[in-house]
Amino acid sequence: MTTPVLPKMPTLDNLHDLDARDPLRHKKAQFVLPGGVIYLDGNSLGALPGAVPERLQRVIHQEWGDALIRSWTAHAQEGRDWMALPDRVAAKLAPLIGADASEIAVGDSTSVNLFKALTSALHVAAPGRRVILTDADNFPTDLYVAQGLNSLLGDRYELRRVPAADVATHLTDEVAVVMLTEVDYRTGERLDMAGLTAQACARGVLTIWDLAHSAGAFEVDLTGAGADFAVGCGYKYLNGGPGAPGYLYVARRHLDTRVALSGWMGHADPFEMARDYVPARDARRFVVGTPMVLSLSALDTALDVFADVDLAELRAKSLGLTDTFMSLLSGDPDLTLVTPLDHARRGSQVSFRHPQAKEAMRRLVERGVIGDFRTPDIVRFGFTPLYVSYADVYHAAQAVLEVAGELRA
Q: Any known ligand binding at 181?
């Protein structure tokens, strides 16, 4: 991976040259992007891949409209039956997160999958351990799910929230599970998954990683890191559409653990209609109900854009784009950078604090630069390497400087 070397203050000509040499430059044409817009919010909702509307039309009119219920099993040999949709999506996800397809269950939301993962992890955890350790500023849903599950279990556990920087020092013999999001949704700071997982493992602590701001933005290696469980969504950097299905990773060594939500689609033979639950042999046991055919079909097609993507090149461009944005905005007195400069500690977004952050983002959106605002004072910009160019970054930065100047005047 070679990250582009930028001049201290890059010019538009410098950036046009980088775009001309970008190995991913052809990818932008595979997305539907409105004219006059620079889209820097793919870390919240990915842009529409151009092949998705045609796929959905086929599913609606031919598979649902014409074939009707036959589509559940029709064309299985060609890989077009609905029943196997979760497995086909899992196979496309696997190389993006460093896992085997048999370890991935696709379906439900990230929150529901986190409930499944946490329940299974607590079942596997060493007896007597009663602490769920997490980042104090973890994404609220992750905290809510842990709180709700603990309440369901009679408040048997303590949800211990500590600053992300202090997680390693709190990996004590009391801790059953550590639950972390790899990239902070506000600041874009990236945790050391491999290092923290190794430290947790050494203390007998199980790990659950939330990949919502990781998968599709850079290479993830769950197997190499030794992670126990992971969850993620399909609608951010994976571009699967609003509310796209989430996924659950369960390391092979835990595949025989208890399944908290044992639905019929996780049965070893769903159409046998047996009265007793017998789980599927792989992660399919964690699929609860009927596959969401329309949304799964959109995600299935969206993932095709990654088929020829070198993830090392994806990461190099991500770092180049974020370096460029930071450099161009480094001189503004009202923008306080909260995203790490260190490449190893950065995801694929850049966040600043600004005293009028909400108004600043409103004005940027009016100018066609779409990022987002996070309470209380953060403006956040996501850089999706597949469809954001270096020239886009330059023009977006100029708009940010203009708005910051207006608000300062």
A: yes
Any idea which residues carry the catalytic annotation? Answer: 139, 210, 235-236, 380
Residue 133's CATH number: 3.40.640.10
Indicate whether 42 belongs to any domain. no
| 291-337: pLDDT as tens digits | 999 999 999 999 999 999 999 999 999 999 999 999 999 989 999 99
pTM of the prediction?
A: 0.96
Per the CB < 8 A criterion, the answer to whether 82 and 71 are in contact is yes
Residues 134 and 275 grouped into a single domain:
yes
Of 274, 306, 338, the one marking the end of a domain is 306
Residue 264 assigned ligand-binding role:
yes
Tell whether residue 376 is among the known ligand binding residues. Answer: no
Nearby residues of 224 by Cβ (< 8 Å), 6 or more positions away: 98, 194
Segment 236-254, tens digit of pLDDT: 999 999 999 999 999 999 9
Top pLDDT among 272 and 332 is at: 332
Q: How many domains does the chain have?
A: 2
Q: Is 61 annotated as a binding residue?
A: no
Specify whether 217 is located in the same domain as 259.
yes
Query: How would you label 60-93 residue by residue, b for 16+ Cβ within 10 Å and e otherwise?
Result: eeebeeeeeeebbebeeeeebbbbbbbbbbbbbb
The boundaries of the domain holding residue 402 are 12-32+309-408
